[in-house]
Specification:
- 25% of the residues lie in helices and 28% in strands.
- The protein has 380 residues and is an alpha+beta fold.
- The chain folds into three domains: 5-140, no CATH class; 143-268, 2-Layer Sandwich (Alpha-Beta Plaits); 272-377, Alpha-Beta Plaits, CATH 3.30.70.3190.
- Strands 5, 6, 7, 8, 9, 10, 11, 12, 13 and 14 form a ten-stranded mixed sheet that branches.
- The two termini are 54 Å apart.
- Bound molecules: zinc ion (2 copies).
- One zinc ion is lined by residues 163, 165-166, 170-171, 173-174, 178.
Amino acid sequence: MRTGHFTRNILKGNDGITSMEDAPRLCPFCADRLGIADYREGRCEICNDTCMDTSLADTIDPTFEYHTFNVGVVLPKDVVERDEAFVREHELAHAHGIKTALNRALRSRLSERLNAQADTEDPDVIFEIDHIKGRVFYRIKSLALCGRYRKEVRTIPQTRWWCTKCRGRGCEHCGHTGKMYPTSVEEIVSAPIMRVASGRKTKFHGAGREDIDVRMLGEGRPFVLEIINPKVRTLDLEALQDEINKDERVHVYDLRPCEKARIEKLKNTKYRKTYRAHIDKKLSNNEIELIEKKLETEIRQRTPIRVSHRRSDKIRKRKVYKVRGNNNKTTVLEIYCDGGLYIKELISGDEGRTNPSVSSILGTHVRCTALDVLEVHCDL
Ligand SMILES: [Zn+2]
Ligand SMILES: [Zn+2]
């Protein structure tokens, strides 16, 4: 136990008269962290003996995989306020605040008992020892995996799509599945991983998304799969990727662990895309040349009618950088453009809401019959 500070401070303005009756009642933990030698034993006037009570910390017994941990003590507000007042009153500016000191003490206690490594920066789990609720919460860091996916079919959405009528509870409308579609890229990718990692749920973050009836081909689209509350963190990703790829609808490449920060990067970066659009008319070579010439420009696109119920009505400006037409059995256009351009409407013109469009250039109504994303130009 350190000595000195308290004696010096408490005597101040006391005409040199000192008496143990002036000494505060403290628990040994508070006395030690505040550097106070002269104190009376008894119920601690700062912490109510909370600091001496390790019963909550002693219940910590994780049944999930973790390699590093941190401790976060939650104390009643009045305890923290009494601590701050005490520090102010006795001018103990050097002292460790009650939470900091307790966290530190519990870290070393737990490190020893659990034989685990403390990490205050980015631990696998935070043991939140809550003295208000009287229990311990395990705040497990989610597991983030990234990779790229190809979607080979025109029948599944990117993410789990809850039934719009019952919002997942199950109803007549959704055949009591709670979902609009039986499966999704998210579900196909996450199922084998969840069987091993045993998480509570997943969140799927793509670098943009394609419509249900659009295939995602080429090198695939970058994504991050977040596994919330995983019980297992060490995964054989190569084996899992093979397992996922047994499903012919979705293929995953380069599956690997990543930082959670990657999610924000994926969301906030603009990507150019290359599409392949099949159209419902066979065009002449002259018409294709005309489109190649006239469509490589800035497109003004008002929010399409088909998404206007869920997207705000505004005009976007996006560029088409390159168009190449191909005229075999049917006409196919390859379009290299800014992300966020609605390609079906770029073909149809969407009743004049997209300008110019393939329809407006040809002066006749042209429709996209099938669409593929050939590449998401993303170097993340
Ligand atoms: Zn105390
Ligand atoms: Zn439903």
